[in-house]
Amino acid sequence: MWAVCSLASLSLISSIVACSAVITERPSFPRSTSAAGTFPSDRVFDYQLGGGYEPADGVGGVARDSTDSADPDRYSLCYVNGFQSQPAERESWLAEPDLVLFGGDGGPVIDENWPDELILDASSDQLRARIAARIGESITHCAEAGFDAVEIDNLDSYTRSEGRLTQDDAIALARKYAVIAHTAGLLIGQKNAVELGTRGRDEVGFDFAVAEECHRYDECGEYTEVYGAAMIDIEYTDNLRGSFAEVCDDAHTPFSTILRDRDLVAADHAGHVFEACAP
After folding, report:
1. What pTM was computed for the model?
2. Phi and psi at residue 224, to the nearest 5°
3. Does residue 23 register a pLDDT over 70?
4. Contact 153, 142 (CB under 8 A)
């Protein structure tokens, strides 16, 4: 039976106290001094892509955007958007239009859920090499900034490509990212795309997985069959299957499963939610 620990922005200080009483029963987690080795599957992660903040006591790992700073006291996971453009970089990608996927209407193909993100054209090895060279700068920056590992988002962009990209294209580009990450001393994680099965681990070289809503869509077991305990799951408040207590009680729920608000806002912002399953 797992307990649930929560933080909410409206009662942040009292929530931290309540949270600490649960999570601090875990052993302390010193920060890894090297990215070599296996992904730490024995700690709770906080997912802070909306902005970094001091995590609750007992949180042993933190995921932040590549433009943010690594947490010097915790295992640090660096977010990189490897298959779509970041909103602030839209125009710079359009300045190299052959690297952007264009659709039948003559316009760039976008992610309908994130319409300010352009899908990158990974349809040939020449294009993949140029994309990897550019995204690789962010990956190596993660290493230089003190992160221990990197997660590459939008691996499944081929499913939004109007049939112009394939899973093989995504695998081939991801493999280039894995080489860059491992050369820089970072572990690299598969972000979503459960349909890859073992291909991400065996053909790309992913070391762990980061899943969003694997409990909601009954996919957690498919990830753990490939990566074992080396994974993180993030569930969201607006799309839970049952209560979060029920999520934590599910035998298929990974050790590091957390509940976050959809916008992943920082702890001092209205709407912030963080809860963690704890043994």
Report:
1. 0.86
2. -70, -25
3. no
4. no
User: Per the domain annotation, does 109 fall within a domain?
Assistant: no
* pLDDT per position as a tens digit, 41-55: 999 999 999 999 999
Write the pLDDT tens digit of every residue in 198-209: 999 999 999 999
What's the average model confidence in pLDDT over 12-27? 32
How far does the chain reach from its first CA to its final CA, in angstroms?
A: 7
What is the count of structural domains for the chain?
Answer: 1
Residue 157 has pLDDT above 80, yes or no: yes
CATH number, residue 191: 3.20.20
Instruction: Strands of the chain (E only): list them.
Output: 3-8, 44-47, 59-65, 75-81, 110-111, 114-118, 149-153, 187-191, 208-212, 231-236, 256-260, 273-278
> Per the domain annotation, does 200 fall within a domain?
yes
Position 181 in a domain: no
Burial class of 14 by CB neighbour count within 10 A (0 to 12, 13 to 18, 19+): exposed
